[in-house]
Write a structure and sequence with these properties.
Layout (H helix, E strand, L loop, with lengths): L1 E2 L20 E2 L2 E2 H11 L4 E6 L3 H8 L8 E6 L6 H13 L4 E5 L2 E3 L15 E6 L11 E3 L2 E3 L6 E8 L16 H9 L3 E5 L4 E3 L3 H14 L2
Parallel strand pairs: 1-4, 1-6, 4-5, 8-12
Antiparallel strand pairs: 2-3, 6-11, 7-13, 8-11, 9-10
């Protein structure tokens, strides 16, 4: 699942007419970088949640055939449902097995094929990165392969594998954030994780978008 329903307030005015996942980076929409990497990793079925200007996303990506994918869309009401609420609404499209979720507003060169299977009792597996300058406090800690809420923190990369049961208490159409669910599961010892030390950018501002575009163009020379 690719999360693409957000309004992108910090990206305005760029997102007034273009949904954030379609903003161009080095010649192609941000979300297409994800689709290409997912396809290379052997993923076939992709669900994309949409709200703000979602029709633009559906018109550009279609059924995913251009990337060898089968894309289905989960439409949310204006204002969207937050991360956990959006995932909960899309559960009928995601099935009963663990599934991968990727934030649509990040750039990352993580190899999705390297993700391990979830441990028998785990509800989630998170990809963590070193704290960027704009998020020095971090989100979670990592002790070997176990995620904790300790003080030595890292940043959640916006890439995770989840069991549907993590969202079982959220009613379809309910607004709900992901962080409280993860914190509860971490406290219960049911979340694993790993570090990604490659390229990763939270494309949250026009300045970060421009810097990423310049870096990728330079790298391709």
């Amino acid at each position: 699942m690719i999360l693409a329903a957000g309004r992108g307030e910090r990206m305005r005015p760029l997102t007034d007419r273009t949904p954030k996942p379609l903003l161009p980076v080095a010649g192609k929409p941000l979300i297409v970088w994800h689709l290409e990497r997912l396809a290379r990793a052997g993923v076939v079925h992709v669900v994309i949640n949409v709200a703000h200007l979602g029709e633009h996303i559906e018109a550009l990506l279609g059924d995913g055939d251009a990337w060898g994918l089968e894309i289905r869309y989960s439409s949310e009401p204006p204002g969207a449902l937050e991360t956990a609420g959006g995932i909960a609404l899309a559960l009928p499209l995601l099935g009963d097995e663990p599934f991968l979720v990727v934030n649509g507003d990040i750039y990352c060169d993580f190899d999705f094929a390297s993700l391990p299977a979830l441990g028998g009792g785990d509800l989630a597996h998170l990809i963590l990165v070193d704290n960027p300058a704009h998020h020095r406090q971090g989100d979670f800690a990592l002790d070997g392969t176990r995620v904790s809420n300790d003080s030595q923190r890292l940043t959640f990369a916006g890439i995770g594998v989840y069991r549907p049961q993590l969202f079982s208490a959220i009613a379809a159409g309910e607004r709900a954030k992901l962080a409280p669910l993860l914190t509860q599961a971490i406290d219960a010892g049911r979340v694993s994780g790993q570090m990604h030390r490659g390229g990763w950018v939270d494309v949250g501002t026009p300045e970060r978008l421009a810097a990423l575009d310049a870096d990728l163009r330079q790298a391709s020379l």
